[in-house]
Protein: Crp/Fnr family transcriptional regulator
Amino acid sequence: MYELFFQQFNEKVPLTAEEQETIKTFLTPKKLRKKQYLLQEGDICKYIAFVEKGALKSYVIDEAGTERITQFALEGWTISDLYSFLTGEPATYLIDAIEDAELVLISKAAHEELLQQVPKYETYIRLQITGAYIALQRRLTSIISLPIEERYKNLTTLYPTIVQRVPQHMIASYMGLTPETLSRVRGRVTGRK
Amino acid sequence: MYELFFQQFNEKVPLTAEEQETIKTFLTPKKLRKKQYLLQEGDICKYIAFVEKGALKSYVIDEAGTERITQFALEGWTISDLYSFLTGEPATYLIDAIEDAELVLISKAAHEELLQQVPKYETYIRLQITGAYIALQRRLTSIISLPIEERYKNLTTLYPTIVQRVPQHMIASYMGLTPETLSRVRGRVTGRK
DNA sequence: TAGATTCCTTGATTTTGATCAATGCCTTAG
DNA sequence: CTAAGGCATTGATCAAAATCAAGGAATCTA
Structure:
């Protein structure tokens, strides 16, 4: 249990056996069925979720009622509405499972205790957020500076697994496009050459 | 010297006088004239820069040779090419001053020493990046889920100072629009009502 | 297995923003 | 003080993506 979580943790910040045991006491496992919510509209986000297995997405609903995906999380990724989690304000994002999933949850109380008690946890979190920040910055830059086709190519080379496992209309949503447009872009990119 | 830097630091993580002195020894002041570079195409990013005074921007140049602004940094903000800074890879962003500026620089060596020696520095950095991450996420969400006019309104309410101090064509670049389009959007938003 | 969804694709039309072009204002440098 | 360059605006045209619409394949499910 928690194999992937600790594998990744140890890669970033090597832990002693005791440290690992201490951390374990603060974690909660959770299984989600496809389409089940981890976080619903307006709820307060109570957890940071690490994905051991399966896939989730976070998204907002725009005024037209369309789902706009802000993030995917496959195995090894972490997902949460961080603002809501940290401030206790109602969430702006929704999170649900796009495949049956197994999660490792860290509650707010656990998070705070861990920051106090285990210095390496703070380091882990710092590195984790730094990575997420850099990934987000890269994504934003590609949105404002690259033509759509390049963005799609980038996505397929950077995250091939996502493109393979996730339905295309979700990729379209994630890219801020309609499914029709993405389908045509794919035709151009994949089709010829 | 470093007033704003330490003011903000103390707001996030209160420091003792000694801690503050220790940190001071790792900081370097730097002044930049308008249009001067802090970081040029392909260089390795050697510093995290905190803005005490003035304004900078970071950007990329797209294939058409157009500047695409990824971030503004006014007083109290921090700017860097974090990926380049952390990995030592050549920078993907350029950074220059849009107004004469006074900076507080933290070099890579200083950063690493501070992480080792001053636990509160790690906390500061963690909080700093967390804030930046949340801001970036919010921006990305507004890009993929809101119509342009709402995005502009959001920007003016969230960062009125930026909209006031920065030339409009830079705001356009930051929003991924042409100056003409932003001008028309403004006409619609500001003009009527 | 039949029926219903979900998902992707393709075509025709409309809308939106980009591009091209010109003007006037304001700042600034010689 | 004057010329030049930077900046915002406005108009006309063009290009790209959204929308509207329909069809067909694949998957799930009763």
